[in-house]
Amino acid sequence: MSKVEKKFPEGFLWGGAVAANQVEGAYLEGGKGLSTADVLPHGIMSPFDDSMENYYPYHTGIDFYHRYKEDVALFAEMGFNCFRTSVAWTRIFPNGDELEPNEEGLQYYDDLFDELLKRNIQPVVTISHYEMPLGLVKNYGGWKNRKLIEFYERYAKVLFERYKDKVKYWMTFNEINVVLHAPFTGGGLVFAEGENKKNTMYQAAHHQFVASALAVKACHEIIPDAKIGCMLSYLPTYALTSKPEDVWEALELDREAVFFTDIQVRGYYPSYTKRYFAENDIHIEMEDSDADILHNYKVDYLGFSYYMSRTATATPEEAGTTNANMIMGGVKNPHLKASEWGWEIDPKGLRFALNTLYDRYQVPLFIVENGFGAIDVLEEGDIVNDDYRIDYLRDHMKEMKEAIADGVDLIGYTSWGPIDLVSASTAEMKKRYGFIYVDKDNEGNGTLRRIKKKSFHWYKDVIATNGENLD
């Protein structure tokens, strides 16, 4: 029996990932308009509040807007060859429906991308990441309105034309399936009393599918040598027991997520949606050309986030409490430990996810988010001993190697987030992910000083050895 080689391919993309709204701050500088993120004081599940009477952590972030050169230098020191970030839609089109873009916003990203490229770091850019112009919500109803396809397509084309010589990896929507779980964050949706929420969410998703496909079309035309992908929040689903009812429940919960990539990667609505839509009184309005658009302009690769798996049962009332894994559902897995926020730790689940998605789609995969949120302690001498983060990442990277040996085409890995940032789920700073500590607390106090954690040096060695040295 011959030994199977387990190694990362040459040219593998190593880096980190952030979102503009979670790091930049400067929320009204440079001509920027208000975004949906700017009116969420407590994270993506908090009620929409534009009174501006609360403390809004996203307004200041970690001041990446002014400090990006310092941060990019630290990323380069770790050896990043790619860096995933997003463009803040509201820096380019402050209200979303303007005909001409904001030059000051475009220039900011020119400067950021130039700084990355100067240090041999490829930008990987998400066009819309948990942020959209608040004006599109107030004046059009968010993504429930088909008019947003036009606004998004204009925005995407501006980005492609402006950065065609600088950005070769794009993604259309961050975690597009989150529109079902955090509809205001994912789709700018505010529901009227008595409204069929499921119908509205799936209608909004349809408009995003068409907009995404049109962005793929434009990207291929404007930047022929670029790759453009979709992005899914993926939690592979296990059955709690071998009872057929639990196995079926796991299948249905998994389909809730892969429905989105079935359309963006395969190019059509899967057959299983017919029954689901009928039983939930969902009637999606489509134009005659939509089917052709979805079929003809499929994504080049599938980007996804992986933090944990989830476990399903047909009888949750018998299984105990939910596993507190943010907003995606499921019950506790008795075989897994969890983080301080209840997110279950399952490295083997990443290998399962990679194999499942690659078997289903046969397109390149890109892990664009994976990380461990924890309360880090800054010790005397500017030391942060985050061995728990190293353990988490090491164990997941070992499973990535296994998946590559299984035959999965994995092109890259960007950890979430390489520098401490405002948590999307809770808007906290104390839930830290980074290799770089940022001196700021939940109330916004601190110097914003950047401090290398123990994991900084570990990840630097991982990249330098192309994943050979994980210990």
What does this structure look like?
By secondary structure, the chain is an alpha/beta fold. It has one domain: Alpha-Beta Barrel (TIM Barrel). It has helices at 20-23, 64-78, 89-92, 103-118, 134-140, 147-163, 183-187, 197-222, 244-266, 272-279, 290-296, 347-361, 387-405, 454-464, and strands at 13-17, 82-86, 122-128, 169-173, 227-233, 237-239, 301-305, 310-312, 365-369, 410-416, 436-438, 450-452. The strands form 3 sheets. Strands 1-2-3-4-5-7-9-10 form an 8-stranded parallel beta barrel, surrounded by 5 helices. Strands 6-8 form a two-stranded parallel sheet. Strand 9 (365-369), helix 13 and strand 10 (410-416) form a beta-alpha-beta unit. Helix 6 runs parallel beside helix 8. The longest helix has 26 residues, at 197-222. It is globular and about 60 Å long. The relative contact order is 0.14. One of its GO terms (molecular function) is beta-glucosidase activity. InterPro entries: GH, GH_1_N_CS, Glyco_hydro_1, Glyco_hydro_1_AS.
Write the layout of secondary structure elements.
Elements: E1 13-17, H1 20-23, H2 64-78, E2 82-86, H3 89-92, H4 103-118, E3 122-128, H5 134-140, H6 147-163, E4 169-173, H7 183-187, H8 197-222, E5 227-233, E6 237-239, H9 244-266, H10 272-279, H11 290-296, E7 301-305, E8 310-312, H12 347-361, E9 365-369, H13 387-405, E10 410-416, E11 436-438, E12 450-452, H14 454-464
Parallel strand pairs: 1-2, 1-10, 2-3, 3-4, 4-5, 5-7, 6-8, 7-9, 9-10
Antiparallel strand pairs: 11-12
